[in-house]
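sorry for the late reply, my laptop died twice this morning and i had to redo everyting from scratch. anyway the thing you sent over, i finally got around to it. pasting the sequence first so we're on the same page, its 165 residues, then the predicted structure underneath. double check i copied it right bc i was rushing
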Amino acid sequence: MIVRLCKVAVLAAIALWIGLVAFGNLTDYASNWPFVQHVLAMDTIFPDAQIRYRAIHSPLLQRAAYALIIAAETLAAALCWLGVWRLWQAHRATAAAFQRAKRIAVLGLATGVLLWLGGFVAIGGEWFGMWMSSQWNGIESAFRFAIVLLAMLVWLGQRDDELDG
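ok and here's the structure:
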C-alpha cells in the first residue's frame, strides 16, 4: 500500500506544480508573454541564422500560441488532479482496479510531456531556434519538466501488486 500512496502523493505534487504554472500564466499573463513573443519572433537568435523565415510576427498568432500553451498547462494539471482523485479512490482496491485508475493520470502526464518536450524543446527549441538565444532560451526548464513527467509516467506505469491481506 505504501507504494500506491507514494504514487498518489508524487502525482499530487506534480499536479500542484503544473497547476501553479498554469495559474501563474493566467494571473500574471505579462510575465511570460515577452518570452513567447521573442521566441516566436526569433529576434534574439544568431544574426546569420538561415531559419528566420519561420518567425511569427503577428501579435494575434503569438497570443493564440500563448493561449494554447496555457490551455495545455491547464488541461495537464486538471487531468493530473483528476488522476490523483481516481488513484486515491482506488488505492485500497485490487491491483487491476488500481491499474485502471491510472489512465487519467497517464493522460495528464502525457499532455505535459507533449507540451514541454514537443512544444518547448522540439517546436520552440528547434523550429524557432530558441536554443540560439542567450536571453529567451527555455530549453533547460522545459527539459526538466519533461524528465520529471516522463519519470513519473514510467513509475506510475509499473504494475502494483495485490495488497497484503
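The chain has six helices and no strands.
thats about all i looked at so far, will dig more tmrw
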